[in-house]
Write a structure and sequence with these properties.
heterodimer, A: mainly alpha, Rna Polymerase Sigma Factor, Chain: A, Arc Repressor Mutant, subunit A, elongated, B: four-stranded antiparallel beta sheet, four-stranded antiparallel beta sheet, about 30% helix
């Protein structure tokens, strides 16, 4: 391994160590589960490492990382997450949209929010996480999701509309999200 | 629209949810960034991507050669159609891989060997089904393939290593559609034991280099080195360090370095 490679590896290491906490939090919101989050971040960073020669010298490596993570999430975690978290009705079909029944009425802590978030269709979940956790603009979120600004707006709005249906949301906010 | 301007339109509900999302992320255990694991995984991905170069080149060459053979005795008036005629799967090594032994030796009285097998790309479901079964019979499992149809249009390669009587195990492999260039001092390698058997502490480095590489130097943690050079055939004096051309892998060569006793891998580089 040459000196240039060593230097690049060190650069990547410091990038990864610096971004790891934030990426883990984002992945956790996307996947709703600790191990799935770790898996998603590792997969993302492996791909970033492969392309580091190009990514490391780019103006906005963060944007590239976000794009990779969203792609990886869409590809690898969408179906698994639905199977894992979404309730099944009598027909055995997975329901994507939470209703406002008893299950959601128990939404009084973080896990309720995470559960409600996880039950959003993946694109809505991605839009909500990127806009309201990552604090991206609609344009930045659209770049990360590989779609139009209009699609981001639409998905984020639908996602928010479903999340606001969680009873007790206002109380959660008032109490800092916990009881 | 600027960030600030977009934020002006955030409703109370959106603000509340943003707050809750931030709070909810405290549920996740951050842990220590697994830098080495990620870099190892990245190197494996890179190795698989580099192998793509060999894949497509092999398919193209195989296809042309097959078509020529098939029509060698016919008049040359339909050449365009002749070239388009696909080679049979057997000629493309769809059901039986091309195999090349890259290195071998003896460790603790038992023979070890490193080989590379290259499978041609199936062109339809029937070919893919048969290839999937043939791979299973040989005990190899293609990368990221969940059903036979995932093999269609992709070549597969497997570097395997075995020690003693145990079945050879795949250690570096991929199933890919498109090639990437591999030149100069490009090198991708993995460090592995002779065997998954805990009794085997001997270390090997197996990797890929450009066809122009004339020397690979492997550095071990204790400061010693092993040097691999291009080799033809095998002799009793081989020390296991070698660079070899692998059948079906026209855009790169493979190499093996053998660690001296009692040390472990540090790095490898093309030195000539």
């Amino acid at each position: 391994m040459g000196e240039r490679d060593n230097a690049r590896n060190e650069e990547f290491q410091s990038f990864m160590i610096g971004r790891w906490p934030r990426l883990m939090r984002t992945a956790f919101l996307l996947t709703g589960e600790q191990h799935a989050a770790e898996d998603l971040v590792q997969t993302t960073l492996e791909q970033v490492f492969v392309a580091w020669r190009k990514v490391g010298s780019a103006d906005d490596p963060e944007a590239y990382v976000r794009r990779v993570m969203i792609n990886a999430h869409a590809r690898r975690h969408r179906r698994k997450l639905k199977e894992f978290l979404a309730p099944r009705d009598d027909s055995g079909l997975v329901r994507e949209v939470p209703d406002t029944g008893d299950r959601i009425a128990q939404a009084d802590d973080r896990s309720a929010l995470l559960k409600a978030l996880a039950q959003l269709p993946p694109r809505q979940r991605e839009a909500v996480v990127l806009r309201y956790w990552e604090d991206l603009t609609e344009t930045q979120a659209a770049e990360a999701m590989g779609c139009s600004v209009g699609t981001v707006k639409s998905n984020a709005a639908k996602g928010i509309a479903k999340l606001r249906a969680i009873p007790g949301l206002a109380d959660m906010v008032a109490q800092g999200g916990r009881n | 629209m600027s960030v600030d301007r977009e934020k002006q339109y955030m409703t109370q509900t959106e603000t509340d949810i943003a707050f809750l999302l931030a709070d909810a992320t405290d549920e996740v255990e951050i842990g220590i960034a697994p830098v080495q694991a990620v870099m190892r995984g990245g190197r494996r991905r890179r190795a698989r991507r580099w192998a793509m170069a060999a894949a497509t080149a092999m398919v193209v060459l195989g296809g042309s050669a097959g078509a020529t053979l098939a029509f060698a005795g016919l008049p040359g008036e339909h050449r365009a159609q002749e070239v388009a005629k696909p080679a049979p799967p057997e000629a493309r090594h769809v059901y039986e891989p091309q195999r090349t032994e890259v290195s071998r030796g003896t460790y603790q009285g038992k023979e070890w060997h490193v080989s590379v097998q290259v499978w041609g790309a199936p062109r339809d479901e029937n070919e893919a089904d048969r290839q999937f079964d043939a791979m299973a019979e040989l005990g190899v499992m293609p990368a990221e393939v969940r059903k036979p149809a995932d093999l269609i249009g992709k070549m597969s390669f497997f570097a395997t290593r075995g020690w003693g009587e145990e079945h050879a195990q795949q250690v570096m492999f991929n199933t890919v559609r498109k090639p990437e260039s591999y030149a100069g001092t490009d090198l991708e390698a993995i460090a592995t034991r002779f065997s998954s058997d805990p009794a085997s502490s001997g270390r090997l480095v197996i990797g890929i280099v450009a066809r122009t590489a004339q020397e690979v130097t492997c550095h071990w943690k204790d400061g010693r080195t092993s040097v691999a050079h291009p080799a033809d055939g095998f002799s009793a004096h081989d020390d296991g360090n070698a660079i070899r051309t692998v059948d079906g892998f026209p855009t790169a060569n493979w190499f093996v370095c053998v660690a001296p006793q009692g040390t472990v891998y540090q790095s490898a580089e093309v030195t000539k």
